[in-house]
Amino acid sequence: MTTAIVVGSGIAGLTFALHATRRGVAVTLVTKGAADHGATRFAQGGIAGVVFPEDRIEDHIQDTLTAGAGLCDEDAVRVLVTEGPTRIRELVAWGVAFDRDPAGRLLRGLEAAHSFPRILHAGGDATGLAIEMALLRAAREAGIRIVEHAFLADLVVHDGAVGGVRVRVDGRATVLTADAVVLATGGAGQLYARTTNPAVVTGDGIAAAMRAGAEVRDLEFVQFHPTVLAAGAPFLVSEAVRGEGAHLVDDDGRRFAFDAHPDGELAPRDVVARAIARTMTRQGGRPVRLDARHVRDLPGRFPSIDAAVRARGLDWSAAPIPVTPAAHYLMGGVVTDLDGRSTLHGLYAVGETARTGVHGANRLASNSLLEGAVFGARAAAAIADPSGAPRFDSLRSLNEHESRFRDGAGAPPFTRAALQRLMWDHAGLVRDADGLSLAAETIAAWRAEATAPATVAEHEDANLLLVAQGVVSAALARRESAGAHFRSDSPRADATTERSASLVPVGAAC
To answer: d(Cα 381, Cα 21) in Å, to the nearest integer?
Structure first.
């Protein structure tokens, strides 16, 4: 019997586990924290798919390609969109109760850069939680072995092939072996001082793959969500709120987003996020405001957001609320083919950990849950029938930057907070060669003086440093702006708007 270990318990990992088990693969799922505490449960916006008769596959494909700034893999996008409706129907069969009107028809939502309202939601703004709980319930009913609180320390590699994982469970080192390992550990949001990602998202899978020699790509493409509450701890305010008609306004009450794009608040996320950053700079670092006063039934439509807003002493039905950008999603990651295979035999990656080519330089809203479901299922099929061969385009490796700080001399002391501030300041919404070079030199010095990690927190720090080095190296190598990667020193930067943008201080948003 074929055996597989999947690391991660979000939509991608659970979809893989369910499909692989159905195909006769013996699956062990290991996850860093509690099984339901990954990034999937926090997804508010919904899942995109062509499920309404008025919508068209070609339109969803084109919307995805346009949002990706011309850098998507069109074959991957076509797979995502054409197989998406089947995966959505499967989620319904597994018990996901998508929102419906009184007649039982699916409700549809509109989000930025979509040409049609094709977004499905569950529980208003609790789509990810509904999916997470339904898939976990299905996995337990299927008898899938789930090991919680198991930290991925490294991959087991012999003769260039991956055959297992080294994990720490309750402080003890354990080796688990299998015919295939699937990384579904999410992205690396904790690289940044402000992020929508939970604390467990520290780039563990990507870093383990890099250490093992797998190819990574497109790490420079980090998406910043435009609207995160700027009162208290970061809390995402779904794009669906703007899709329902909420406006972004500056201190004078002016809708400034139209200065950057004719679609205003519903322009691609990178455009809106930079427009907010520019406005905050003009306002001395004060956050902009999201005006949702005219959106009907905020508590009913967005119950999770409404509760978070009111817990901070705000009433968004009576006054605009303060918002700011925050790191949200990593478009790059471990390079895979259309079936989840990495460049290392026996190693697969799915979900945000993978670089499928679907997202290009800027992810289209609500395509991430769809990607996890579609490519999780495809990876399961590939492992169950391993006769296929991986297919990759021309790959480029990341070049490590030489540090001017020899043996750590001259570099500031390392702390995770220092790394997060460095990345926010120099590898965030707006980058340039000088700032990226400083970041690269500092990170290289920190890595040079680092000792072998012993605790989980030290392993996480090492992972963040390695992935940060990859992000910065890739951002230095790509000299022209593209989507979420915006170089203010790029010859293609807009001289009247984008060149003047600067990332607001972290403290100004709090």
So the answer is: 10
Q: Write down the residue that tokens 């026996």 correspond to.
A: 346
Mean pLDDT confidence for 151-157:
97
**Spatial separation of the C-alpha atoms in residues 185 and 394, rounded to whole Å:** 25
Cα–Cα distance for residue pair 161/332, rounded to 1 Å: 22
Q: How far is CA 185 from CA 25, 309, 333, in A?
A: 20, 29, 11
CA distances from 70 to 269, 330, 398 (A): 15, 17, 21
Residues 423-445: pLDDT tens digits?
999 999 999 999 999 999 999 99
Helices (H) and strands (E) in the chain, counts: 13, 17
Q: In CATH, what number does 3-151+331-384 get?
A: 3.50.50.60
- Residues forming beta bridges with residue 169, ordered by sequence position: 150, 172
Distance CA 269, CA 422 (A): 23
Give the bridge partners for 389, in sequence order.
Answer: none
Residue percentage of the chain with pLDDT more than 90: 85
- The strand pair at 172-177 and 161-169 is best described as antiparallel
Distance of alpha carbon 21 from alpha carbon 384, whole angstroms: 9
Cα–Cα distance between 229 and 323 in angstroms, integer?
5
Q: Name the CATH topology of 406-477.
A: Methane Monooxygenase Hydroxylase; Chain G, domain 1 (1.20.58)
- Residues 6 or more apart from 253 whose CB is under 8 A from it? none
C-alpha 455, offset from chain centre: 26
What does the domain layout of the chain look like in residue ranges? 3-151+331-384, 226-325, 406-477
Which letter, b or e, does each residue of 376-412 get, where b requires 16 or more Cβ atoms within 10 Å of its Cβ? bbbbbebbbeeeeebeeeeeeebeebebebeebeebe
The answer to whether the beta carbons of residues 384 and 2 sit under 8 Å apart is yes
Tell me: domain 226-325, CATH 3.90.700.10, correct?
yes
For residue 305, give the amino acid letter. I
pLDDT digits (tens, 9 = 90+) for 212-271: 999 999 999 999 999 999 999 999 998 889 989 999 999 999 999 999 999 999 988 889
Helix (H, G, I), strand (E, B) or coil at 256: helix
Q: Which residues are known catalytic residues?
A: 269
Helix (H, G, I), strand (E, B) or coil at 13: helix
Q: Which residues contact 230 (CB under 8 A, 6 or more apart)?
A: 287, 322, 323, 324, 509, 510
| Closest of 11, 1, 3 to residue 43, by C-alpha | 11
Q: Are strands 119-120 and 288-291 parallel, antiparallel or unpaired?
A: unpaired
Alpha carbon distance 298, 294 (integer Å): 9
Q: Which helix (H) or strand (E) holds 228?
A: strand 222-229
